[in-house]
Amino acid sequence: MASRISSRFTALSKAGRSGLVTFITAGDPSPAATVPFMHALVRGGADIIELGVPFSDPMADGPIIQRASERALTAGMSLKHVLEAAQAFRATNRETPVVLMGYLNPIERMGYATFAARAAAAGIDGILTVDLPPEEGADFQCLLREHGLDQIHLLAPTSSAQRIEAVCSHASGFVYYVSVKGVTGDKAFDPDEVRTRIAGLRQKTALPVGVGFGVKTSAAAATIAAVSDAVIVGSVLVEIIEEADSIDAAAAQLEQFVRGLRTAMDAGRAAA
């Protein structure tokens, strides 16, 4: 049986569209906000939701998402509560894939087997652990596969040919290409370099390739949509939440911003 992630990418491909993957940090600014924000993202046109698991030392994330993790942890968010939020989202949305993105420590504390079982039961579709390289993740990957969960890996502009081979042989769901040398929200990407890198990755894997880090505007999203299977947007959405006056205001602004991204992406893909 095809996973929700693979089914979504198949539908997008048939429609000639690039997917929109939207990231928020679970529990930011409060645990009660997470599910309304997820629904707002879907209403705006998100194809996949990437749900950040707050962590005290998010090494791949820039200041915006670091602050979001701090707010969520202060509000009492934990991995257990992230899974509860995903399960609550699934009560009314059975179609939109949900990927957990985070770091290994909270999963280790829960226990790999326990986590895999609870994640599957909560309706999670994929797992991206930033600090678990494929060479060290074989046992975890087996557990995820037993529960029908995709394991998503990162590739960067600095990834060697050997690293690309390793990631492409282990990954499932999609491959996440980091468009910049740095952390989330750090700098703008080079369109020509991204285009060249994506073309090279397509020679190595049949999996969809999503591009993230550095995508902050509708114009940037449209540029990426023209050459990739998915555009991954995070820091700018987290910044909307940070600056909003209330949860309701943040939800409305998220929906509006994502709708603008979706419109621009469709236009960019059509033009390409």
CATH topology: TIM Barrel
**CATH homology superfamily:** Aldolase class I
CATH architecture name: Alpha-Beta Barrel
Order of helices and strands: HEHEHHEHHEHEEHEHEHEHH
Shape: globular
What is the distance, rounded to the nearest whole angstrom, between the alpha carbons of the first and last residues? 33 Å
In words, what does this structure look like?
The protein has 272 residues and is of the alpha/beta class. It has one domain (4-267): TIM Barrel (Alpha-Beta Barrel), CATH 3.20.20. The chain is 51% helix and 14% strand. Strands 5-4-3-2-1-9-8-7-6 form a 9-stranded parallel β-sheet. Strand 1, helix 2 and strand 2 form a beta-alpha-beta unit. Helix 4 packs parallel to helix 6 (112-122) and helix 11 runs antiparallel to helix 12 (247-271). It is globular and about 45 Å long. The two termini are 33 Å apart. The relative contact order is 0.18.
List keywords for this structure.
alpha/beta, 272 residues, TIM Barrel, 9 strands
Strand and helix map with partners:
Elements: H1 4-15, E1 19-25, H2 34-44, E2 48-52, H3 63-74, H4 79-90, E3 98-102, H5 104-110, H6 112-122, E4 126-129, H7 138-146, E5 150-151, E6 153-155, H8 161-170, E7 175-178, H9 191-202, E8 209-212, H10 218-225, E9 230-233, H11 235-243, H12 247-271
Parallel strand pairs: 1-2, 1-9, 2-3, 3-4, 4-5, 6-7, 7-8, 8-9
Helix pairs in contact: 2-4, 2-12, 4-6, 10-12, 11-12
Summarize the structure.
With about 270 residues, the protein is α/β, with parallel strands linked by helices.
